[in-house]
């Protein structure tokens, strides 16, 4: 017989057997074996390990979806014996239970509800795994559903539905904006017409007041003149003012004016006849 030395890394323990029977756990550092009676048959790590499991199943509305479940687990220090001797492949054991839980839960949910129930699914998976794997010396640290991937055609259809909803909302908002613009434009037009009417009314009132004042002043200055004569004179004056304004306009090229032998009285009578014919 001889003595052999070996080392165990930090966060690990070694499993030592004597003639094929479990004897002890080798702690981190330098250890010794009595060869060939004793042997280091394996090592157990206490580090947290992660296993990613892809599960394909269908939802309540018959949509096939692939879920990626990440399981984080580690060996319990007080249950190293069970962790080493109870399971040949703990990853396969965890994978099988993840398949069982996810395929039992997802068929009861519709596709939209699956995305909303990620936390509940992860918690249900963790509770189921913890209950089983603790007896084998493993602790389930956390379970995360990191991805939910439906068929590409389903994703395209969902995007199309969402796009249609947003387009419908945008059209409604645009129509509401156009409605507000038309209402404001109508209100502005009504206000402008009202103000224009007020301005025209004030203008006509000022003209009437001016005519009244001119008649009174002319009657006082020229004795024996009648109101009709004063009105005739004012009409003639306004006629000449109109001819001047029309003739001085930039776009005016030709101006036609009535002409007769008796100019003044004939022009006044023409204006009065035209006024009566309107």
Query: How many individual helices?
Result: 7
Distance between termini? Answer: 142 Å
> Helix/strand-derived class?
alpha+beta
Widest beta sheet: strand line-up: 3-2-5
Over all CA atoms, what is the radius of gyration? 52 Å
Q: Rough shape?
A: rod-shaped
Mean pLDDT over all positions? 83
User: SSE order in H/E notation?
Assistant: EEEEEEEHHHHEHHH
What amount of the residues lies in strands? 25-35%
Number of strands: 8
Percentage of helical residues? Answer: 40-55%
Q: Sheet with the most strands? A: 3 strands, antiparallel
Q: Give the uncertain stretches in residue-range form.
A: none
Oligomer designation: single chain
Structure description:
A hairpin with a 5-residue loop joins strand 6 (49-58) and strand 7. Helix 2 (90-105) crosses helix 4. It contains seven helices and eight strands; from the N terminus they run βββββββααααβααα. The protein has 278 residues and is α+β, with helices and mostly antiparallel strands. The strands form three sheets. Strands 3-2-5 form a three-stranded antiparallel beta sheet.
What's this entry about, in short?
The chain is an alpha+beta fold and 278 residues long.
Task: State the main characteristics.
alpha+beta, single chain, 278 residues, three-stranded antiparallel beta sheet
Topology record:
Layout: E1 2-8, E2 12-18, E3 21-26, E4 29-35, E5 38-45, E6 49-58, E7 64-75, H1 80-85, H2 90-105, H3 111-116, H4 118-133, E8 138-150, H5 152-221, H6 227-247, H7 263-277
Antiparallel strand pairs: 1-4, 2-3, 2-5, 6-7, 7-8
Helix pairs in contact: 2-4, 5-6, 6-7
């Amino acid at each position: 017989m001889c003595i052999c030395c070996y080392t165990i890394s930090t966060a690990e323990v070694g499993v030592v057997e004597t003639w094929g029977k479990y004897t002890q756990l080798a702690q981190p550092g330098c250890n010794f074996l009595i060869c060939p009676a004793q042997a280091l048959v394996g090592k157990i790590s206490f580090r947290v390990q992660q296993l990613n499991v892809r599960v394909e199943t269908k939802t309540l509305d018959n949509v096939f979806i692939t879920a990626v479940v990440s399981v984080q687990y580690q060996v319990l220090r007080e249950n190293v014996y069970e962790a080493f001797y109870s399971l040949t492949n703990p990853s396969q054991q965890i994978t099988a239970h993840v398949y069982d839980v996810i395929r039992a839960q997802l068929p009861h949910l519709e596709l939209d509800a699956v995305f909303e129930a990620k936390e509940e699914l992860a918690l249900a998976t963790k509770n189921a795994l913890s209950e089983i794997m603790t007896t084998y010396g493993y602790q389930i640290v956390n379970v995360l559903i990191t991805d939910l991937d439906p068929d590409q055609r389903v994703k395209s259809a969902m995007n199309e539905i969402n796009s249609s909803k947003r387009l419908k909302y945008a059209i409604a908002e645009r129509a509401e904006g156009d409605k507000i613009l038309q209402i404001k434009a109508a209100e502005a037009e009504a206000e402008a017409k009202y103000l224009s009417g007020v301005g025209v009314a004030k203008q006509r009132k000022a003209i009437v007041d001016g005519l009244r004042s001119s008649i009174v002043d002319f009657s006082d200055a020229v004795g024996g003149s009648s109101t009709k004569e004063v009105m005739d004179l004012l009409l003639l004056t306004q006629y000449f003012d109109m001819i001047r304004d029309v003739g001085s306009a930039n776009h005016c090229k030709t101006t036609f004016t009535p002409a007769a032998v008796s100019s003044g009285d004939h022009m006044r009578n023409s204006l009065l006849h035209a006024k009566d014919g309107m």
